[in-house]
Amino acid sequence: MQTTTLKMQSAPRTRVKPMRNWSRLPLYVCLTILAFVFIYPLIYTILASFKTNSEIFSNYFGLPSTWHFENYASAWVKGKIGNYFLNSLFICTVFVVAGLFFSSMGAYVIARVKAKWLVSVFYFFVAGMMIPVHSILIPLAQMAVSFKLSDNYSFLIGLYVAGGIPYMIFVMTGFMRSLPTELEEAVIIDGGGLWTIYRKVLLPLSRPVLATMGILGFLSTWNDLILALLFIKKSSMWTLSLGLMNFTGLFTTDYAGLCAAIILVNIPIIIVYLFLQEYVEKGLTSGAVKG
Amino acid sequence: MDRLKSRHLQIAMFLLPALLFYAVLLVYPVLRTFFLSLHEWNGFAGSKVEYVAFDNFKLVFEDEIFWKSLKNVMVVMLLSIAIQIPAGLFLALLLNGKWKGIRFFKAAFFMPVIMSATSISLLWKFILYPGDGLVDGLLMKMGLEDSIRAWLADPSINLYTVILICCWQGLGVVMIIFLSGLVSIPDAIKEAALIDGANRRQRLWFVTLPLIREAVAINVILLVIGTLKIFDNIYVLTDGGPNHATDVLGTFLYKEAFRNNRFGMASAIAVVMFLLGFVLTLVANRAMRRESLDG
Question: Which of A3, A133, A212, B275 could bridge A283 with an S-S bond, Cβ 3.0-4.6 Å?
Fold first, then answer.
C-alpha cells in the first residue's frame, strides 16, 4: 500500500515536465482533424464563392483558377443581398436598443427595489422563457390580419422585443442583484430618484451584461427565419434569411452567387464572434448555468 | 402616504414598457392559442370563429401525419442527445486546459452555432448536391459510387442526414456548457484523486463525471427543448418531405396553419407542443435530480 502511494505521488512530478511538448502531439493531431471537419464546409463555401459554376463541381479542394470577385457583386446587387442586409441591420439595431432599454429598466427595479410584489413580477417574466415560438404563431397571424400588421417592421421588431424580454430580464436581474449598493446610497443622499440611480449608476455598471445580452439578441434576430417568414411578404422588405432562402429559387443555376450570398450573410456574425468570443459564449450559457 | 404612492407609481413606470410588450405579444397570444384550439377559424379577416370543443384535438390525434411528425421529433431528440452529449463531452475534455491554440479550436467548433440555420442548411444542401456536390464528388473520386444515396430525398435516410447536420451545428453549445462545468471542478479534488492513485479512466468516471452532472442535465434539457421546436433546418433542407418523411411538429403546424388554413387544428397542435415541452422538461429535470440523489 505504502509503496504504491509513494510511486504515484512522485510519478507525475518527474514525468510531466520533459514530456510536455511531445505528449500533446496526439491531442493536437486529433483536434486538428476534428476542427477541419467542422470548418471545411465553411472554407469550401468561401472558395466556391470565387469560382465559376463548372469549377465548383470539379475542383473540390483547390483554390480557384482565377478569382471571380464579380460573384459577390452579383449577389449583392442582382441577388439584392445588399438591400436585405440593410433591412436586417435596421431591424436588429432597433431591436437591440429597445430590448436592452426596456429590459434593463424592468430588471433594475426588480433587482434593486425591495417590494414583495416585484418577486411575483420577476417570476411572471421568467415564465416566458418556457414559451416556444410555435405556440404563439396563430394568434399573431390573426392579429396581423385584423390590424393589417403584415409588412410592418414595428410589429416584427415588437415581436422580437417581446420574445427577448424574459431571457434578458432573467440574466440582467441576476447581474444587477450582485452589484454593490454604496454608489446608489450616495445618489439617494444627494436627493436623486430612481431614474437618476438607473441612469447614472446602474446602466454604467451593467455594461458587461448589456453587451452580452445585446450581442446574443443581435445574433438570434439576425438569424431568425420563422417570424420574418410569416409577417414580411413584400420582397423589398425581406430580411437576409428570407432573401437567402429565395436566392435559390430566383437563380437556380448560380451556385457561386449563392455561396457568395451565404458568406456575405455570415461575415458580420463571424467578425462579431471572433472579436467578442467570450461575450457570445457567456451569453449563451449564462442563463443556462444559473437556471 | 402620498409619497409611498408616487414611489409605487414610479416603479410601475419602469416596468411598464417591458410588461406591455411581453403581455400583449407573448402572454396574450399563448392564452389565445389555448382558446383557439377549441374553435374553428379559417384565417380570413371577418370570418367566423366557431366553438367546436375538442374536435380539433380529435382531428390532430386521428391524423397519421401528426403521429409521423411526433415520431420524427422523438427520433431527432433521442439521437441528438445520444450523439451530442458524448461528442460534446469528448471535445470539452480535449479542450479543458491552458495551452496555445485553445481559443482557435474552441472557435472552430463553435462557429456553426452562431451561423443562421437558414444559411447552414443552404450550405449543406449545396454540399450534398446530388451528383457533383462535395460529398458525392468525393465518394466518386474514392471509388465508392455504390454508397452514394439521395441524402436529402431518400425517405429511408434523409431524416438521419438532417439529424447529423443539426448535430454538426449544435455541438458547440453542448461543448461550451460542458467546458464551463469542467472549469468549475476545484483543482484540489483532481489532485486528491491523482494522489490516491486513480488512473485516467477512473478519474473521468468517478471524479469528473459526477461533478459535471449539472452540466449534463442542462445539456439534456436544452436539447429536449431545442429539438422539440426544430423548424428552420427542416423547412429549408427538405420542407418536411418527401411524403412527410421528415415532417416534425413544427413543420406540421406551419403547413396546417399557413398552407391549409386550418387554424383551429394548428392551434391544437401548438397546445400539444406546449404541453409536451412542459412535461418533457419536468421529466428530464426529475430524472437528473433523481440521479444526483442516488449518486
Answer: A212
Q: Does B6 touch chain A (CB under 8 A)?
A: no
Domains detected in chain B: 63-294 (1.10.3720.10)
Alpha carbon of B43: minimum distance to chain A alpha carbons (Å) = 7
Assess contact for A193 and B9: CB atoms under 8 A.
Answer: no
Please write the tens of the pLDDT for every residue from A31-59.
889 898 888 888 888 988 898 877 877 77
Stretch 230-269 of chain A: residues touching chain B, C-beta under 8 Å: 230, 240-241, 244-245, 247-248, 255, 258-259, 262, 265-266, 269
Show pLDDT as tens, one digit a residue, over chain B (295 residues). 566 677 788 888 999 999 999 999 999 999 999 998 998 877 666 677 778 888 889 989 999 999 999 999 999 999 999 999 999 999 998 888 777 788 888 888 988 888 888 999 988 988 888 877 888 888 888 888 778 888 888 888 999 999 999 999 999 989 988 988 888 888 888 788 888 887 878 888 888 888 888 888 888 888 988 898 899 899 999 988 788 999 999 999 999 988 988 888 999 999 999 999 889 888 887 877 655 544 3
- Whether residue B270 and residue A248 make contact (CB cut-off 8 A), yes or no, is no
Three-state secondary structure call for residue A222: helix
Cβ-Cβ contacts under 8 Å, B263 against chain A: 138, 141-142
* Grid cell digits, residue B189: 479534488
Burial of A223 (0-12, 13-18, 19+ CB in 10 A): buried
Cβ atoms of B217 and B288 within 8 Å: the answer is yes
Write the CA distances from B127 to A29, A41, A44, A153, A259, integer angstroms. Answer: 25, 8, 9, 34, 11
Element housing A132 (H / E): none
Q: Is B248 left (phi over 0), alpha (psi -120 to 50) or beta?
A: beta
Per-domain residue ranges of chain A: 82-253+260-290
What gap in Å lies between CA A137 and CA B270, rounded to an integer? 9
Q: CA B171 to CA B177: how far, in whole Å?
A: 10
Overall fold of domain A82-253+260-290:
MetI-like fold (1.10.3720)
The separation between the first and the last C-alpha atoms of chain A, rounded to the nearest angstrom, is 44
Burial of B89 per CB tally in 10 Å (0-12, 13-18, 19+): buried
**In this predicted model, what pLDDT tens digit does every residue of A81-102 receive, in sequence order?**
899 999 999 999 999 999 999 9
